[in-house]
Amino acid sequence: MKLVVIGAVAAGTSAAAKASRNDPELDIVIYERDQDISYSGCGLPYYIGGEVEDMDALTPRDPSFFKEKYNINIKVRHEVQSIDHQSKEVTVKNLDTGDTFTDHYDQLVLATGASPFVPPLEGVDQSHVFTLRNPNDARSIVDFINQHRPKSAVIVGTGFIGLEMLENLYANDIDVTVVEKMPQITPNLDEDMAEYLEELITNKGFRILKDATITHVEQDHVKLEDSPDIDAELVIVATGVRPNTQLASNMGVELGETKAIKVDERMQTNLEDVYACGDCIETFLSINHQPVFRPLGSTANKTGRIAGDALTGGSSRYQGNLGTGIYQLFDLTIANTGLTEKAAIESGYDVVVADLTKANKPRYLGGEKMRIKAVADRHSRQILGAQIIGKEGVDKRIDVFVTLISYMAKVEDLFHLDLAYAPPYSNAKDPVHFIGMIFE
Ligand code: FAD
């Protein structure tokens, strides 16, 4: 039996490794068009900022690791160009030699990931304009900074990658302006939380322009509609990603309403023996089963493992996600899980909200304020979502909410949680308890 996997980053290698563990006799090959595999894309901003000094730390595994540990053959710089599911054949191009050949599969995993979406701005194809997706992008940005020593940069977009890049370009002594087309920053937060975050960022002296549309990218500045030009010797476009679905749709794989690949809870597509996982698939919110496109490493690893298990006869089933996200911005941590107030209303819930700012631990041990906004359903009292902005301890509070929401806890459960307490970590009444106390 032969398994062919396309893509060797988070999802593809997870799928292949799990399949090999379940069935060591399986003949597995992964085709990857890039030269880097199984890397931590999430660490790339910190390589650009210099906190991670060596790219090898983010790309710790090479094909020989997978060959020795799992007997998986990874062919890098090999691009799958088409798939014929009638004859179960992939056509592959060796990007180094230019040779093209076909390979047979019994089962196929599409782990083709996602690619940055670049808006059609005039001048965006110049050599000082970058996206950040893979190690090569990060190397190119670092090379550019080392060669040209830019003094100014514009980041387009205020998702987590754009804001992580704000911190890491600043670490290179670059004066950064962040430009956002929408009237609010960070689409994963409600407007009030986004405004709070914006205030914290601008209080640190950074410029964020909202409602701002770039019309041209020039050599050392960008032009905007209705605003003065902004100096930009370097431009980072961080305006989201789109799933890589071309191969899939050409072979007859169905896409979902988010335009990513539609899979069942075993990661199987509409075609027998064809599975998909990672950033190329549509998942669903566990709260209300709404289809979503949530391209995150956490989900890519999970769905990859499920695909590898399912295709070798295992019983793993995907249970959905909460769109949970977290990122660092200087001394701040920003996190969200589940539905925002806006999303909950749009999904038809009658919503109650609790919003407070409390210290994460006693002031005498350096406690700092943390703002939590939680959303629940007025009738069932079920907790639907939370957004947290603070310094220390945001990560553990958001994971408390993740767990509560996953097990359909109610507002009244919050106060009764027996959370760990000692002064270095929290107050006797934690901000999470307080949220439970102030819900209507
Ligand atoms: P990808 O990483 O996109 O890999 C797909 C691979 O398939 C690519 O290497 C591509 O070259 C290959 N491929 C595509 N088509 C073909 C073809 N025809 N033939 C051969 N090969 C092909 N997620 C988090 O959860 N937390 C974070 O903090 C976080 N931070 C991030 C920061 C940055 C800067 C970036 C870029 C991403 C971050 N992510 C984060 C997202 C995370 O990196 C991705 O969700 C994850 O890499 C997805 O893995 P994947 O294997 O599904 O897809």
Please, could you describe this protein's structure?
The protein has 12 helices and 25 strands. With 440 residues, the chain is α/β, with parallel strands linked by helices. The strands form 7 sheets. A 5-stranded parallel sheet has the order 3-2-1-7-18. The longest helix has 15 residues, at 297-311. The protein is globular and about 65 Å long. The mean pLDDT is 97. Bound molecules: flavin-adenine dinucleotide. Flavin-adenine dinucleotide binds at residues 6-7, 9-12, 31-34, 41-42, 44-45, 79-80, 111-114, 132-133, 161, 244, 247, 278-279, 295-298, 300.
Topology (SSEs and partners):
Elements: E1 2-6, H1 10-22, E2 27-32, H2 44-49, H3 63-70, E3 72-76, E4 78-84, E5 89-94, E6 100-104, E7 107-110, E8 114-116, E9 129-130, H4 135-148, E10 152-156, H5 160-170, E11 175-179, H6 191-203, E12 207-209, E13 214-217, E14 221-224, E15 227-231, E16 234-237, E17 241-243, H7 246-250, E18 274-276, E19 283-284, E20 291-292, H8 297-311, E21 325-329, E22 332-338, H9 341-346, E23 351-359, E24 369-377, E25 383-390, H10 394-406, H11 413-416, H12 431-438
Parallel strand pairs: 1-2, 1-7, 2-3, 7-18, 9-16, 10-11, 10-16, 11-12
Antiparallel strand pairs: 4-5, 5-6, 8-17, 13-14, 14-15, 19-20, 21-22, 22-25, 23-24, 24-25
Helix pairs in contact: 1-8
The structure holds flavin-adenine dinucleotide.
The site of flavin-adenine dinucleotide (FAD) has 32 residues, from helix 1, strand 2, helix 2, strand 4 and helix 8.
